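Key result, reporting period 2: structure in, sequence out.
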């Protein structure tokens, strides 16, 4: 046992030794080398290499002084400490000061003579086991004066938690007037006899007065979420937790302004690595702060959000910083506007959220700094309260652009971040040690769902879908009886109209009270009444002007008239007037208004309890569907669930938000708490539906008044509704929910609701009449009109005859495949330049010059090739000064094919934004090149992780998550955009995986817009796709529907399950086609026998049965019998729940739970042809025959691009998106 009585140095010893060291140290300065004079010259600089002797030069050319046999003798008892050299140092670790250390099982101290003022103290540790000293036993405390910097600290745990080999800690303390020494004391933890303390290096550097501390002349700094200000007083000690060069490179100590600070890159902390502008040539003007505040590189680089206004308004530029709970923090944000277009106030104005609280509503760097190129910083104090047993929590820094009427550019900018922990009242900065890394990562906790709950849900689903079959059958019979008599408008309300060139009035006898008034218009030309001449006003009793010079529903209240602008069933389907609660209101789907179509939960079986609002408030369907953000906590904290609603400027609005918690896991207060931001103002900091409604299944609504002031000549502006989850300290689930939206315009003081007419869409419409039209008619005009009508009839007859002659021979031949949607793509040679001009709009995405692409790929160096396809090569490159990795796809220069695919991919991807779709950054078409630049997908293609690969196999839950993500991406293409988009080339090489294993659908060169009207259920087109994945119905009939993607995805599902290619010519005939063999095994009850051997015994039987059922239903021969992608998403999520529930059961019982007969997963019987939910019945549903096996074409390879016999020339070389030999994306 070691002697523990010597815990403090004797005052007598100190009084004898200290004066001697003060004298010696003061006259031996420590040399520091540098190439240029620093911006700040510290009065005190010490760099001590503990355990070493003599002067040693570090990699950055700084000179470190060894503490052995030098003036840096230790204060310790009986010289109990030892020096040691690390047994082995990593090549990435600078041996100075990390190669040597001083270790002791007793207390020891270093004493330094210093001047008065604030100091940096940096302690460097390299946890390594040496003889007699196990790295895992190093637990100790560090104190300076009366401050506890570290307590029971383990450098090994700290290094392992961050994946680093070394640990450096930086602190700030103030040396008071009259103090002549600074003592740093190391004390092993007394409770463990084997504990010891060690240190590799010590730095002490003076800093300018009040660089981080609050000056007496300063009025304090903003305390986030508090009414009072906060002072960083000199009595506090500080610990630097983060110092980030936002958007820029690592800045070493020698590149600092003389204080030897380290500035790290922010890549690991920024949720979405957005645009990284830089201006290395700008002449910075330090008129607002000292030049030594931060290095020039910090102010010459930044992160912004880019130029896509709609996308920017839908998310926050976010940094996530993990901090110790129970402390206050000083947060310093560095700003500098260096982009030449930002020169005036309100050019770029944004909101700053810190710890989910609004810090700045109108952040404007130009206003703060006084001009472009002028650095400025802003300080904030943040309290991060304790969270029970949680050692750590996340501090979120979020920037959100302000709306159009506040700023010229909807953007935000940040250049640098510094975060300091502030000592507590007991002068302690010590935080807890990280938890030891587990030997194996436990599976994430699954939400518990009892078998009884599943039975109830399944019975409800079956009943609901049986009812759906009856309704759908009735509708189909009605449609068949109607035949060709279909009309877009209801004849009851729209075929007849009353028209007049004179004022007319309707009068109705009414009871007292509020009323709905709905006016229905069908603008059509009636005889001599031209639709373009219909301009009129509408007024109602009380002097309210509803419409003025109008060229659509509302009700009258006692003091205001209101016009309904939007009524949205969030996450649900459109509801007709007869679906309403008796007031014949129409509820639209919200797909066109939600920026990010996230998760859409539903609970059709829940028994709603209307205890807070009347049951006629909204239809039941509104409260049984919703949008949420999902379960990805990190992703959720980085964006807002956003709706944007264009509204008339100059009016106030009533906004009603409908809520109902129907998910079974949300039962208690604070289960799901979030913030509501309306018109970029915080409306609710702690929105909690359970608190408002008092329970699950209880509908509630909240009303808000919103003023949308006039914006000059802008007729319209966007009203943004945004939901953001609250942090862990306030909620169980980092999520948000919304069920419905109603928005009403309020009449203005003139009792008017009239807004301006929209601008004409194409041909200019005639101006509104200023005065009444004369009843006289000009005969010349009539003759001209009659002649035009006759000519039009002749032309129309010719067109009709031509269409009849063409009959059913409609095809879209090359090169115009898809051109009817996106327009013809052509190059025009320009002799005076090497640039090929094209019809590509440059505002859709970034245009790269060929030189930029060559720099990014080192002149297309083959070393950078990560994939080879029929289109050409795929390179890994680096843009934005080498800071951003990208994937660059280049057409073979000798090829003349792929122009249409190139055009299609740019036009499509630049307008699609979804978590599960690959993001297009830009393109290059200089010098007749065709090059696309995408986000780099670190984990390559899904196929890279299934077979013929050296990558470790994916777990079953990983595969399920990837399938769910890809299905969501396809569901968005089919239903989340204005017109259905059919991918046409769904396969495992076109599903990419990012660094977080998030699946993203890619390669849209073959994509096609789906039918644009109800009268056409398909698109007639040349057959394109890939062997093994091709829909047999599409191949036979050459009629494309979104169900062709469903078929291909079914092949993907079996490919994921079996880890084998879709076509394998080396096996017996019945096993060649995966699309034929796997369903046959499923029908024979042998599905488990063909599962990837790695997964044997790891898939719950229930989950496997459900997964196989989904895949088989996707491979039905007839598209009408296949599920929609919405159904596939639902089924896969259900399979995931089955797996997680079974795993929980297995933890308890040690074996998979057997499915009882009455619990057996239901088979899918597909009965819809309109992408509605498919019906679950108790039998297999549908039939299967040899026609369902896919297109059998003999091929020497496993997969080739195929076309119909009419286009044999369109082989793989013409398919822009195909990757034949993917090595990574």
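The corresponding designed sequence is given below.
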């Amino acid at each position: 046992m070691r002697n523990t009585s010597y815990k403090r140095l004797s005052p007598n010893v100190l009084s004898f030794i200290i004066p001697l060291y003060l004298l010696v140290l003061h006259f031996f300065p420590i040399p520091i080398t540098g190439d240029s004079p620093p911006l700040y010259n510290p009065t005190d600089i010490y760099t001590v290499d503990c355990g070493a002797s003599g002067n040693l030069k570090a990699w950055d050319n700084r000179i470190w002084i060894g503490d052995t046999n030098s003036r840096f003798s230790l204060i310790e008892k009986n010289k109990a400490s030892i020096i040691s050299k690390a047994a082995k140092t990593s090549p990435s670790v600078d041996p100075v000061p990390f190669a040597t250390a001083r270790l002791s099982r007793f207390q020891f101290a270093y004493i330094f003579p210093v001047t008065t003022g604030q100091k940096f103290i940096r302690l460097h540790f390299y946890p390594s086991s040496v003889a007699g000293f196990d790295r895992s036993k190093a637990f100790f405390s560090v104190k300076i004066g009366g401050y506890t910097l570290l307590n029971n600290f383990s450098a090994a745990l700290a290094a392992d938690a961050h994946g680093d080999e070394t640990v450096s800690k930086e602190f700030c303390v103030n040396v008071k007037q009259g103090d002549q020494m600074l003592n740093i004391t190391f004390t092993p933890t007394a409770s463990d006899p084997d504990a010891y303390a060690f240190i590799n290096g010590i730095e002490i550097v003076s800093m300018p007065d009040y660089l981080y501390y609050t000056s007496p002349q300063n009025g304090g700094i903003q305390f986030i979420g508090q009414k009072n200000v906060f002072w960083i007083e000199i009595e506090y000690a500080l610990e630097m937790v983060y110092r980030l060069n936002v958007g820029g490179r690592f800045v070493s100590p020698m590149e600092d302004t003389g204080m030897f600070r380290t500035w790290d890159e922010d890549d690991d902390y920024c949720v979405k690595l957005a645009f990284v502008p830089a201006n290395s040539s700008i002449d910075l003007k330090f008129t607002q702060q000292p030049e030594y505040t931060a290095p020039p590189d910090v102010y010459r680089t930044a992160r912004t959000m880019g130029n896509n206004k709609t996308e920017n308004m839908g998310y926050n530029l976010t940094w996530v910083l993990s901090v110790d709970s129970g402390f206050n923090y000083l947060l310093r944000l560095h700003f500098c506007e260096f982009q030449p277009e930002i020169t005036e106030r309100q050019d770029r104005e944004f909101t700053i959220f810190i710890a989910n609280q609004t810090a700045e509503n109108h952040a404007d760097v130009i206003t703060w700094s006084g001009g472009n190129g002028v650095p400025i910083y802003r300080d904030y104090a943040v309290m991060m309260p304790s969270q029970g047993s949680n050692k750590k929590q996340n501090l979120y820094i979020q920037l959100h652009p302000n709306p159009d009427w506040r700023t010229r550019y909807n953007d935000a900018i940040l250049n640098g971040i510094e975060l300091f922990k502030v000592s507590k009242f007991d002068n302690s900065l010590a935080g807890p040690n990280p938890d030891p890394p587990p030997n194996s990562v436990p599976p994430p906790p699954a939400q518990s769902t009892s078998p009884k709950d599943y039975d109830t849900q399944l019975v409800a689903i079956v009943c609901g879908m049986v009812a759906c079959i009856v309704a759908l059958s009735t509708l189909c019979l009605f449609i068949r009886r109607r035949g060709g008599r279909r009309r877009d408008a209801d004849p009851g309300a729209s075929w007849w109209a009353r028209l007049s060139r004179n004022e007319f009035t309707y009068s109705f006898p009414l009871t007292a009270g509020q009323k709905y008034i709905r006016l229905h218009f069908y603008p059509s030309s009636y005889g001599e009444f031209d639709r373009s001449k219909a301009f009129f006003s509408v007024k109602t009793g009380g002097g309210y002007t509803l419409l003025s010079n109008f060229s659509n529903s509302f009700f009258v209240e006692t003091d205001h008239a209101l016009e309904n602008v939007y009524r949205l069933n969030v996450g649900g389907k459109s509801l007709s007037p007869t679906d309403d609660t008796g007031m014949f209101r129409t509820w639209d789907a919200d797909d066109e208004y939600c920026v990010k179509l996230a998760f859409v939960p539903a609970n059709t079986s829940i028994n709603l309890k209307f205890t807070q609002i009347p049951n006629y408030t909204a239809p039941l369907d509104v409260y049984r569907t919703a949008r949420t953000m999902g379960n990805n906590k990190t992703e959720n904290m980085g964006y807002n669930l956003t709706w944007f609603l264009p509204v008339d400027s100059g009016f106030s609005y009533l906004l009603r938000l409908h809520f109902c918690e129907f998910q079974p896991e949300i039962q208690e207060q604070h289960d799901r708490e979030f913030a509501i931001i309306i018109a970029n103002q915080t409306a609710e900091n702690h929105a909690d539906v359970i608190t408002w409604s008092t329970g699950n299944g209880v509908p509630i609504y909240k009303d808000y008044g919103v003023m949308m002031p006039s914006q000059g000549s802008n007729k319209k502006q966007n009203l943004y509704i945004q939901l953001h989850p609250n942090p862990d300290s306030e909620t169980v689930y980092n999520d948000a929910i919304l069920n419905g939206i109603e928005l009403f315009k309020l009449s203005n003081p003139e009792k008017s609701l009239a807004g301006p007419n929209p601008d004409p869409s194409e041909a200019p419409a005639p101006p509104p009449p200023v005065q009444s039209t004369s009843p006289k008619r000009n005969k010349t005009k009539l003759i001209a009109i009659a002649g035009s009508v006759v000519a039009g009839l002749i032309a129309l007859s010719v067109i009709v005859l031509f269409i009849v002659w063409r009959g059913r021979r409609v095809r879209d031949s090359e090169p115009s495949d898809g051109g009817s949607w996106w327009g013809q793509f052509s190059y025009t040679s320009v002799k005076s330049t090497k640039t090929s001009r094209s019809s590509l709009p440059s505002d859709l995405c970034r245009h790269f010059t060929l030189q930029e692409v060559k720099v990014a790929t080192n002149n297309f160096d083959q070393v950078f090739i990560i994939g080879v396809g029929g289109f050409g090569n795929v390179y890994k490159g680096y843009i934005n000064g080498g800071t951003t990795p990208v994937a660059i796809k280049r057409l073979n220069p000798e090829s003349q094919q792929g122009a249409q695919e190139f055009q299609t991919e740019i036009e499509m991807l630049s307008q699609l934004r979804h978590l599960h779709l690959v993001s297009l950054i830009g393109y290059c078409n200089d010098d007749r090149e065709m090059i696309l630049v995408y986000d780099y997908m670190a984990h390559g293609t899904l196929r890279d992780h299934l077979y013929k690969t050296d990558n470790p196999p994916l777990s079953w839950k990983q595969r399920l998550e990837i399938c769910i993500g890809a299905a969501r991406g396809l569901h968005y293409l089919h239903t989340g955009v204005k017109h259905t988009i059919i991918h046409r080339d769904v396969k495992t090489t076109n599903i990419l995986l990012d660094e977080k294993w998030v699946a993203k659908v890619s390669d849209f060169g073959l994509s096609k817009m789906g039918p644009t009207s109800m009268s056409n259920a398909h698109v007639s087109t040349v057959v394109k796709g890939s062997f093994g994945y091709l829909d047999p119905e599409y191949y036979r009939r050459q009629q494309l529907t979104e169900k062709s993607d469903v078929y291909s995805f079914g092949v993907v599902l079996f490919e994921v399950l079996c880890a084998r290619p879709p076509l394998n010519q080396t096996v017996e005939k019945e096993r060649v086609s995966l699309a034929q063999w796997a369903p046959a095994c499923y029908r024979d009850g042998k599905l488990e026998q063909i599962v990837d051997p790695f997964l044997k015994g790891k898939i719950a039987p229930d989950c496997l049965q459900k997964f196989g059922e989904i895949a088989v239903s996707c491979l039905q021969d007839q598209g009408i019998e296949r599920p929609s992608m919405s159904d596939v998403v639902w089924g896969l999520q259900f399979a995931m729940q089955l797996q997680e529930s079974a795993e929980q059961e297995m933890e308890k019982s040690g074996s998979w739970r057997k499915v009882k007969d009455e619990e057996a997963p239901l088979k899918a019987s597909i009965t819809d042809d309109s992408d509605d939910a498919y019906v679950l019945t108790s039998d297999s549903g549908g039939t299967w025959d040899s026609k369902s096996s896919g297109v059998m074409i003999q091929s020497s390879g496993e997969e080739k691009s195929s076309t119909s016999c009419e286009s044999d020339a369109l082989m793989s070389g013409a398919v822009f998106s195909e990757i034949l030999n993917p090595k990574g994306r």
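The two ends are 59 Å apart (CA to CA). The first helix runs from residue 11 to 26. This case is discussed further under Risks and Mitigation.
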